[in-house]
Design brief:
With 178 residues, this protein is mostly helical. The chain has 5 helices and 2 strands. The longest helix is centred in the last third of the chain and has 33 residues.
């Protein structure tokens, strides 16, 4: 991240504030206000498999980036954005697999609270992404972390909310039939 010392301090302050807010929201999502999620054995197996698939997705993305960097000499993102994309792709695979196989929401979580927080976070990221798009995403032909992070998160969160909605609709359809 290029910039002055004050920009770096502001960036770190934003990360620290975001982490504090995340901890508070995490506790609000629980029915029993505990910090620990409680999963049954089947959910733990599903989550483990989701982590495995997410890891393989992250590795495949890294392989693609290596080929693009060395073999094709294509640089479409800065290093921070590339690393962030790998993390987000792995997380999206893990979460979507876990949601689809009923391993995402813990036994002590309130799914409605989780969804309301996810929808709010999605809306905020979409708003930030629209602002960045309006002011130009690329710097010297490269997508930077500062300009692209909210867009990447917004895209993935819309995808994950869609997976949750399709899963919910499929379950509802099955309940109506049976």
């Amino acid at each position: 991240m290029n910039g002055s010392g004050m920009e770096r301090i502001g960036f770190l302050a934003g990360i620290i504030t975001g982490c504090c807010v995340a901890v508070l929201l995490f506790k609000m999502m629980k029915k029993d206000r505990s910090a620990k999620c409680k999963y049954d054995e089947r959910q733990q197996i599903v989550r483990g498999r989701g982590f495995q698939y997410g890891f393989f997705g992250w590795m495949a993305f890294n392989g693609f980036c290596i080929v693009a960097d060395i073999g094709l000499e294509v640089h479409f993102m800065d290093l921070s954005m590339t690393l962030f994309c790998g993390m987000v792709i792995g997380t999206a695979i893990y979460v979507s697999y876990s949601v689809w196989h009923d391993g995402y929401f813990s036994l002590n979580e309130n799914p409605k609270r989780v969804l309301s927080i996810l929808i709010t976070a999605t809306a905020l990221n979409v708003a930030c992404a629209v602002y960045r798009i309006h002011n130009g995403l690329l710097e010297h032909g490269v997508l930077t972390f500062l300009n692209g992070a909210n867009l990447m998160i917004a895209i993935v969160m819309v995808f994950l909310l869609a997976v949750m909605f399709v899963k919910w609709a499929a379950e509802r359809r099955n309940q109506d039939k049976g």
